[in-house]
Amino acid sequence: MAEYLIKNGHVFDPILGIKGEVHNIAIRDGKFVEPSALTSSAKTIDASGKTVMAGGVDIHSHVVGPKVNVGRLFRPEDKLFKSPLRQPKNARMEMGFSVPSTFKTGYDYSRMGYCFVNEAAMPPLHSPHVHEEIRDTPLIDNTAMPVLGNNWFMLEYLKNGEIENNAAYTAWLLHATKGFAIKVVNPGGTEAWGWGLNCVTINDPVPHFNITPAEIIKGLIETNEYLRLPHSIHLHGNNIGNPGNYTDTIDTLKLAEGYSPNCDFGRDQVIHNTHLQFHSYGGDSWLNFESKAKEIMEYVNRQKNLTFDLGVVTLDETTTMTADGPFEHHLQSLNHLKWANVDVELETAAGIVPYVYGKDVKVCNIQWAIGLELALFCNDPMRSHITTDHPNAGPFIRYPRIIKWLMSKASRDELLHSFKWSEKVIGATNIESIDREMSLYEIAMMTRAGTAKALGLSHMYGSFTEGLAGNVAIYDLDPENMPSDPEMIEKAFGRAAYTLKDGVIVVKDGDIVGDTPKSTIWVNVKVPENKQVARDVSEKFLRYYSVNKDNYSLFEEHLHNPKVIEVDITA
User: Fold this and answer.
1) CA within 13 Å, CB half, 534
2) Is 442 helix (H, G, I), strand (E, B) or coil?
3) What backbone torsions phi and psi does residue 3 show, to the nearest 5 degrees?
4) Burial class (CB in 10 A: 0-12, 13-18, 19+), 31
5) What pLDDT score was predicted for residue 87?
6) Do residues 147 and 90 touch, judged by C-beta distance below 8 A?
7) pLDDT digits (tens, 9 = 90+) for 258-286
8) CA distance 338 to 197
9) Of the candidates 369, 554, 30, which has an alpha carbon nearest to the alpha carbon of residue 4?
10) Which residues pair with 306 in a beta bridge?
11) What angle do CA 235, 237, 243 make, to 5 degrees?
12) Quick check: helix, strand or coil at residue 259?
């Protein structure tokens, strides 16, 4: 392992409280050490006049797995977007824009200075596919979250108030799928979709099971805290994407009141609300559609047990995909483009629809504003995380553009006033009146320190703390002489001057120049023996599943360089 001394850079590390001061960063054997621990053979990287942050941590993206692969097959036209960047030596071809190949996914994240990505929706039955694609995605570490909000086992246990049984089943499922956390998508609504219905509010009963989304969410919070998992429940709420849904969102977030995190991994929240932009809509039709980001954030700012990611609309052609099957059917009825629908037995469903967020479409312009408003109204950037819900609101390669918009009011205003419907957008949002420009320190919170903390992974990522993996991003931005042209912010964050992954230089001047092994992280929870749950699993697999229980589970050797987080609640 090479040793590196990164000298004279302006360091931003919210975990350590470093706010742009000039520091030296040392790496030895792939981990951060004190500079005095380096030997005379250490190589030097001069970061004078540059911004230095820990490697980026993406809390919510859809980059691997069956629905992503269906999206690749479903949209051959997306492959017309060939990478214009220089191909890494001996690397695979980079193809795709909104649904890039696994190879392009890893390369593009690395170019932006990211070292970790969370796959936010893994169908448990298809976990082998998810982990196969994780193995094929170079350079970035991964976690994957099994989808639980419409699982038949869970619905029955929570209907009967059997939290311990549900926890034992969840622990078994995390082990079987090598999963990381509890993902919830349209709780109850996706199961209702099997009956041609949906759960639009949190009080709509799920057909046959006679349980409501509110009961599901509260039961899963209790399950999560019983298991002491590193991350909270990862929640995609009901009634996504419809005018007036902000009241449903606030009703959903209120379910967290009275709960406190119960874990040893530093998180503060019991709910992480995903892609909050899609849940912050006012009006009662698309004619009077408006932003309710301010109202949402007035509530969130008062609560300390909530985190969220933005889901910013980037005004691109993209491919929507979600385990919220009824929403995708609704979206197809709006744009009349092609549609794929998938059902996963006993567990979840999914849909895929291409979508164009047109610059000349008023609704799309308002959506763009809402995503930015959520960040700009947030009092604590450690709880607000930059995402596009890739690829749903746009491709992840637009993160640098979002950073530019958040850091520069001039760039926001320039785009806002270029809209065909700019006056109507101004009337329906607060974006023009917001003067706030976020700092590099706050960007480090939203893309590194805060995301790592919310995931319960700040003991592994998001900081230069001694002993953590040597993941570094160096950007060609001088905090003491910031460019007058906001486009230079986007350019700098789009192509890092250097990215180091585990102490290896993998990007230099925006080009892939190296490779290094990656890791898959999962959580192994030890719970008291539960014979009832073991019997239930065996019986339901025999009765309902198309696969044998013994063929369902993954073995650790199926994973790429697995790292296990052990949680033992039996002690």
Assistant:
1) 5
2) helix
3) -105, 140
4) middle
5) 59
6) no
7) 999 999 999 999 999 999 999 999 999 99
8) 21
9) 30
10) 271
11) 145
12) coil
Q: Which two tokens stand for residue 187?
A: 């709780």
How far is it, in rounded angstroms, from Cα 532 to Cα 549?
A: 16
**What is the rounded (10 degree) CA torsion for 119, 122, 126, 129?**
0
The domains of the chain, with CATH numbers, are 4-54+459-512 (2.30.40.10), 56-455 (3.20.20)
Q: Which residue has the tokens 């036209």?
A: 77
Task: Strand 56-61: give its sheet, edge to edge.
Answer: 56-61, 114-122, 141-146, 520-526, 562-568
User: 35 φ, ψ to 5°?
Assistant: -55, -30
What whole-number distance in Å separates Cα of residue 508 and Cα of residue 76? 31
Tell me the two tokens of residue 427.
Answer: 């009337």
Please, which residues have CB within 8 angstroms of residue 431's CB and are 6 or more apart in sequence? 291, 369, 372, 373, 412, 416, 425
Q: Is the pLDDT assigned to residue 83 strictly greater than 70? A: no
What is the torsional sign of CA 229, 231, 235, 236? negative
* pLDDT tens-place string over residues 345-356: 999 999 999 999
Percent helix, strand, coil in the chain, to 5, is 35, 20, 40
Measured N-to-C along each axis, helices 293-300 and 246-253 cross at an angle, to the nearest 10 degrees, of 10
d(CA 70, CA 50): 41
- What is the model's pTM? 0.97
C-alpha torsion sign, points 167, 170, 176, 179: negative
* CB-CB neighbours of 492 under 10 Å: 23
Among positive and negative, which fits the CA dihedral 20, 26, 30, 33?
Answer: negative
Tokens of 102: 């696994």
**CA proximity to 405, closest of 354, 429, 370:** 370
Residues 99, 416, 77: CA angle, nearest 5 degrees:
20
- Is residue 326 classed as helix, strand or coil in its secondary structure? helix
Task: Output the DSSP codes for 90-110.
Answer: TPPPPB-SSS--HHHHHHHHH
